[in-house]
Amino acid sequence: MSLFTKKSKEKVYTRYSSGGANISVWRETVEKLQTPEGRPEVLDDIVVLDASAGNFSGIIAASFFAEFGAEVIKIESAKGDPCRKMTPYGRNVKGVGIPFMMEGRNKRYMTLDLEGSKEDRETFAALARKAAVVIETFPAGKMDSWGIGYRQLSEKNPGLVYIAITPYGQYTKKAREFVNFPDTDITTQTGSGLSAQIGDFQTEPEPYSWPLKAGMWMGWYVTGISAALGGTLALLHRQSTGEGQMIDVAGMDAYSSMTGFPASIGYTWDKPRPRIGVLDFILYPYSHWKCKDGLVAIAAPRDHDFRALLKILHRWDLEDDFKFTPDRIPDIIEQAMTLHREIEKETVKYTAEELTTKALTYAFKAARSKWRGGGVPIVMGVMTPERTMKNRQWEVRKSFKEVEDESVGTFVVTSGFVKMSESPPRIKWVSCDIGKDDEYIKIKYLQERCGG
Amino acid sequence: MEEYFSYTAKLFDPTRVNEKPEVFKGLRVLDFTHVIFGPTASRILATYGAEVIKLELPFYGDLWRPATYWGRYWKHSNPIWHFVTQNKYFVSLDLKRPEAKELIYRMAKDADIVLENFAPGTAEAWGVGYSSLSEINPKIIYLSCSTYGQYGPMRYFPGWDLLAQAASGVLSLNGFPETDRYYKLPDYLGDFVPGNMAALVLCMAIYYRNKSGKGQYLDLSQTDSMIRLLPHFTYHSVTGETLGRTGHHDPAMIAASIFKTRDGKFLGLACATEKQFHGLCRAMGKEALLQDKRFSDYFEALKEENAEALRAIVGDWIREKDCDEIVGLATETGFAAAEVATDKVICDDEWRRERGSVILFNDEMYGELALAGPSARLSKTPGRTKWLARPLGYHNRLVLMKFLGLSEQDLENLEKKKVIGTFDDRPGLKPPLYYHLDKDPVYNYGREVKR
User: Fold this and answer.
1) A47-260+396-445 in CATH: which number?
2) Global pTM?
């Protein structure tokens, strides 16, 4: 591990030199972080039933439980979860879409027709007696009307953590009124406040002036993370008291509840924020510019960082007009855009890597100089996902994993988003055929029902 | 059996939240983090009952204290800082001083969790890293938050949300194809999302410790976190193609895009399933589309040229309708459509107020402020807000005297040496002008005050 080779002298400024208080502990810890395999799994003692249908946030929540070792059983009808088909431009492998392949990590698949078969609902209820977590995304009250809602299941299994995900939640007048309203990523983005803040100035030509969506499923991922987080909090309560509970996640809360900005800004400012394109409401420079080989992102919002940036770009002439943060924040758009254009005149002269190196070198010197004031302009080339995949940093950290499956073939998935020294998450398998574990689940969990 | 919605209304009743137990009662958290990423993780722990001791540098404090949107303060505070620092204890001490380190070591003895988001290597260099604190308390759970992680060739690179968005590929995905229009995700999502994931992994570590008795070290990078959310890598490895930017459209769902309505509003619309597409066709009065070969099969309808044709048909229809009309039809026939909601709409939304998604919180120091409610509603152990942000060093006396048993004399010595301190006269750090700190029993803990 290069962190500990004495020869490689850091070219990047760090306060870390020969080690902290205890180098051997630190060394051992970092080494442990690099291999998840063979270590204990956090949730190896629980079963999770994912009965979500047509809503990826349920699948995403289930994935987190599965990555941390839970036995996750995906329940779907013989036709398969409609989520299998949601895939960019319809690209699929044997009828399985890309996002479904990606989230199909460490899961069991069982076919049950919850909508149509009374018998299958009974089987589900029997499984739920052994489960710690149920995830569902049906219209509020639907599972309840089938006799397999939180009310009924928790009678037989008081420790059950029951996660329900819908656009408008399980209570309130509107939840009742919009009960059949489906959940999708894009409506979650527009309805929870994300789209209103992304996109170009309203003065730009249409359709650039329109509110925009994030180029990934940000609504569904935020909802899924919220559901996994809520579920894990409930598992902790269950661990100490044996008590389960119901968790209500509303897709329309996604963005607003995660950042808190819409509520508090809506209240204190009492009017909507405009869209400000490449600018930022609080910080400047905090944006991206064209450079010789694409785009470069630069953050230098603190005054001394900004001065350092001007030095690097040889534009000290701008210092006088934009000396202080209030000179740079974009409450006067034209002023901020002027600075933006001036910076771009310089960034186009360099590649992203040249700029990154210049910034790191400056910071390295500045940190040791009493004259430069420790400015650290922070620079990074804007990578496409394809370039990110090739970055050595993520190779070393094993952030991507090539996986192989008999039926869907070989492909790359993101993996191990957190490194943990004792009980890390991991990907064990990705197979996701409909009903592939019917037998396994019957034998393992439903013996008494089969008379076995 | 009781009607479902009346049952759930009682189960989740927002007015009864404060009567219910807290998951993290008694859990103690030492929080070295600043700005958003780390503080969001500790905020979530605090929302569910943990005692989070937020450590800041005397007289300067957290970088984000004074940094408000467009430089607008609210009662001399940063209005959006209240959300990420609610329920925390504000202690300010100068980590560079050996006396401060001693205090940290004493606190670490009883702490369950430690979080830091300094540049990688800094916490270790200062002697408050995992290697030091785990010797004092082997059961400690220690989370390091960073932009690129604690190991790997880029480990010492500095970073913020923006850089994580750039390095993960996220920034390259928002905007319009075949233009030079790219946009970062707004409002520091590159901090908030990893912050929530940080809270999730801390919960996992606590769960594991409850089972095994073992603490551990966690290394969460915000770039790794953002990478986790993208299907683009899998897409590339399967198809050999790049997905790139898709403008207003979601290429993974039928007719999914942002549209403009007759009354000049914008809405997101999508059909996640074939059944929803039937609903949309019914609403448009264009059931014939269901027979159209181009749209008769889900995968077929997603093919680029077919999707474009369908979006044109839907767009034409929407242009002739008002936003409310479309949303009404969506609920009736069962497809998804939601208006683009602004801050103001969200803040005033009746549904959110009733649900507790927007809470009008009444704080002893700041009065009324609208805050977002927790992302998930837990029926038995719900999250709650107890107090808003406090001036720098507000809880110094309370924490140091009550938790560590320091005397008045000890505090005086520490203050004299500037090991601990409070705020300078700057917005974001100081209390509101009208507030009399000298009458505040918490700030003056251990001293007589007349209210």
Assistant:
1) 3.40.50.10540
2) 0.97
